[in-house]
Amino acid sequence: MKLTLIISTYNSPQALRWVLHSALCQSETPHEVIIADDGSAAATGRLIEQMRPLFRCPLHHVWHPDEGFRKTVILNKAIRECCTGDYLVFVDGDIVMHRHFIKNHHALARQGRYVVGSRTFVSQAQTAKLFEQLYRPLSWTSHGLKNRTNALYMPWLSPLTRLYKRWKPLYGRGANFACWKTDFVRVNGHDEAMLGWGLEDTDLINRLRNNGVRATAAKFQAIAFHLWHRQSPPNKENERLFRSMMHRRQCEHGLANATQTPQEQHNAL
């Protein structure tokens, strides 16, 4: 199985430096790493060029112009243009991965399943301190963590949590998420009509579920540390669009047929 790690980013080279170092330190090397860049300035590109020689696998950088939050568009573009893997693992550009993160996702991969992992939040003060330091692995004993239990690495307990959050079927998070590329293609990828932040990941997961793909929770493994950053309010229009299309199995404007601009797609709905 060829596993592709996809990292979405926007104008946060300090955070991305830590994320890329955590990718370098993985106990299992992915088949390839793709940076899906939602219009960052030149500093992000320079960082990627500096770090590319350190990687033992291909490191791709896919960019488009900054026209607002278009994460769905750049993720589809990255997969369409660069992805040669069979299995997709998505993280955001502020997610520092435990050293066994890729190994765990590889082990959790099952046909007919997608995987959602947890996050441990790093405080604002501690994030600022980390940015001033050289990279070092984070763990549940690190300073400045919130919801610290999500950082406990005990994979032998994970089988006991397979039904975790079964009662919340629309539970979704793109910051630590994995699925088969064939399933991603079947639902036509991310919906590029979802403009701004909010529910774009949940919408993808809902379409996977409507196609019979079921959830696996990565508890006590595939550990992720979410670096602090300011967060914009979600786009309420995305919620209206999502609620009106909860029963669909594919999106109209996604991976295979992104022929309109995001604003044209949005207006058409």
Q: Compute the gyration radius: what is it? A: 17 Å
Helix content: 25-40%
Number of strand segments: 11
Quote the CATH topology: Spore Coat Polysaccharide Biosynthesis Protein SpsA, Chain A
| Terminal residue distance | 38 Å
Q: What does the overall shape look like?
A: globular
* Count of folded domains: 1
In terms of quaternary structure, the protein is: single chain
- Mean pLDDT comes to 89
Element layout with pairings:
Elements (H helix, E strand, L loop, with lengths): L2 E7 L3 H12 L7 E6 L4 H10 L7 E5 L7 H12 L4 E6 L2 E3 L3 H8 L4 E5 L2 E3 L1 H8 L13 E2 L29 E5 H6 L13 H11 L3 E5 L5 E3 L9 H9 L17 H7 L1
Parallel strand pairs: 1-2, 1-4, 2-3, 6-10, 7-11
Antiparallel strand pairs: 4-9, 5-11, 6-9, 7-8
What does this molecule look like?
The chain has 269 residues and is α/β, with parallel strands linked by helices. It has a single domain (3-268), classed as Spore Coat Polysaccharide Biosynthesis Protein SpsA, Chain A, CATH 3.90.550.10. Helices cover 31% and strands 19% of the residues. The protein has helices at 13-24, 42-51, 71-82, 101-108, 124-131, 181-186, 200-210, 236-244, 262-268, and strands at residues 3-9, 32-37, 59-63, 87-92, 95-97, 113-117, 120-122, 145-146, 176-180, 214-218, 224-226. Strands 3-2-1-4-9-6-10 form a seven-stranded mixed beta sheet, with helices on both faces. The chain has a four-stranded mixed beta sheet with strand order 5-11-7-8. Helix 2 (42-51) links the parallel strand 2 and strand 3 (59-63). Helix 1 (13-24) runs parallel beside helix 2 (42-51). The termini are far apart. Mean pLDDT is 89; it is low at 259-269.
